Amino acid sequence: MDFPTLEDVVGNTPLVRLKRICAGRNNTLLAKLEGNNPAGSVKDRPALSMLTEAEARGDIAPGDTLIEATSGNTGIALAMAAAIKGYRMVLIMPENASSERKQAMAAFGAELIGVSKEGGMEEARDVANAMIARGEGKPLDQFANPDNPLAHYRTTGPEIWRQTEGRVTHFVSSMGTTGTIMGVSRYLKEKNPAIQIVGLQPADGASIPGIRRWPQAYLPAIFEAPRVDVTLDIGQQEAEEHMRRLAREEGILAGVSSGGSLAGALRIAEQCENAVIAFIVCDRGDRYLSTGLFAPEV
């Protein structure tokens, strides 16, 4: 019997129908539970893809040092993939990332370098690029690496199409590196150009892990604006409230960006009927417990 390895069980995550959170007008809300991946997020897919494809091209080999800027989930996924394949992983991230995220990366053996909360991901990317320029390691660069969206074109998109039996009408996703929405959009539009692709960015003043509004100079090179039909601004309170709703009304413990995805899906549902709306639940909520976001309201 040929038993699977950990790499073999990345992907093929459940797509579940919400039961208590009602979309009305005969609409169906479907949550893609990416927290069921081995390292706990949607980023397992591109992390493994970037390493595997780079190895196939001969760009990297086990024993190399890899350098990546991350806000959390990609770092955890890359740390896992590096542990599987035998790489030294150096991750640069803003210091305000949750303690659970930092501890998970360290548990997989990654080395962490912090940058200021104020500098954020832009500073993390600058530090990573400077280290790479000094020859301290090799880049993966999730923001410009086509193997990021390729993972979702090959896996996430086909899964949603298969799991809905081709009935999906809308796909809703946070936009961070934009790899998820780019890859899924490409696949679903090839199957049915009428499917609406909805991207989420933070409203002014919001700081939601996994959802970014990039300055033009830092816009991910993999992003192609025509692949997104509708862009919605998601507020901080809105995302957090819907994150708690997922846990308390549907039993889905997820992070803040997933709450934003639910909020976006509900907004879309207000404008249509008989729709099948799939949205990404990016990760698990247990990596945010120390932030107090799930604490009982007083």
Automatic annotation (TrEMBL):
InterPro entries per the UniProt record, alphabetical: Cys_synth, Cys_Synth/Cystath_Beta-Synth, CysM, P-phosphate_BS, TrpB-like_PALP, TrpB-like_PALP_sf
User: Modified residue N6-(pyridoxal phosphate)lysine is at which positions?
Assistant: 43
Domain Tryptophan synthase beta chain-like PALP intervals: 7-283
GO terms, molecular function: cysteine synthase activity
Enzyme Commission designation: 2.5.1.47
One of its GO biological process terms is:
cysteine biosynthetic process from serine
**Which cofactors, if any, are listed as required?**
pyridoxal 5'-phosphate
Q: What is this protein called?
A: Cysteine synthase
Q: What is the lineage of its organism?
A: Bacteria, Pseudomonadati, Pseudomonadota, Gammaproteobacteria, Oceanospirillales
